[in-house]
Amino acid sequence: MGSIDRYIFRTTLTSFAVVLISLTGVIWITQALRGIDLMTSQGQTIVTFLGITGLVIPSLIGVISPIAVMIAVSHTLNKLATDSEIIVMNAAGMSPFRLFRPFVYATCAVAVLVTFIAAYLAPDGLRRIKQWDAEITADVLANILQPGRFAQLDQNLTIRIRERKPGGELAGILIDDRRDPKERITILADHGTVVKNGDGSFLVLEDGNLERFEVGKRDPALVAFARYAFDMSKFSNQGHDVTLGIRERYLWELMAPSEDDPIYKQIPGQFRQELHDRFLAPIYPFAFAALTFAFLGAPRTTRQSRNFSMGSAILTVFGVRMAGFACSVMTVKTPIAALLQYVMLFGVIGLSVWIIVGGVVVEPPPALMEAINRSNARIARLFRRPAAA
What we know:
By secondary structure, the chain is an alpha+beta fold. It has helices spanning 3-33, 46-54, 57-82, 85-91, 96-138, 140-143, 233-236, 251-255, 262-266, 268-280, 283-296, 307-330, 336-358, 366-383, and strands spanning 150-154, 157-165, 169-177, 183-197, 200-214, 221-231.
């Protein structure tokens, strides 16, 4: 690359990095707040919270990168136009297509990043989240049962302990079990301990009362016990077998799924959708970069407004992205929709390159601009303050 290419390449990638970090940070914060219960109800540390929520960042980067490319290209072109550098380079004999070359280099770097994220990094982070979450749930007796807190282990199972004593003894235990729709069991125990053996994990309660209220009966049954074992195996064994979803599969696992895979047998259309989304991920940066340059890359004088071209570029990119989402959803049931998405993206790239090579300046029709100016003038007259007498 020459000095001009390096300058544009560096400016574009710097803008891309700033936009990507900003957008990813904002969206990550909104996602992280949804998992704040890791520290509140489940008693996890800030390190665990940041670790689990941080693993979703690669997935966010993969989605945000094409939009960040569009913003970075438009920012760089606007900077070059404001400083009259595009006009100077055009007057020196540099064609718009030649000017587009460093943007292609920058987009290639982004596409490599997106490809690596889509193929390996994002699914690896998601499967680590699932595994980590399963391990937390598997160690529920040690992590979730925090003194003075009501821990909801299941949809209708709540446990509370008053305090933890040395030696692993739990004091002041309350269990409210409503998992069986035909009865409700409430257990109060003075103390208890956790016992794990070959049969599973049990919360052994001592010196307590069990109240069973059955549907259809007026009075509950009250039983006093000296020792009672409450089965916790369901929660302690969740970390051993983790079933990976479609988004947690690596690219090569989506390309050649096992015929005996129960998820693939049940929803093969979603495997097809995810596979094509991974293939299309690195194509979107090229489509958005080419579209943005087609609208904003042509040389203009300072009297020619770029607002219309900027707005048109944003609306076109938004429309292409929405059409891509629609095709992706339809791919689950209609395989031809994936082909339509490929045709749309390569068609957008081809049309944009044709505009760039031809040096076409995308401008609004003169009649439209005259109508807008007249409308703005009428609005200005309506809100214009009358002159003082």
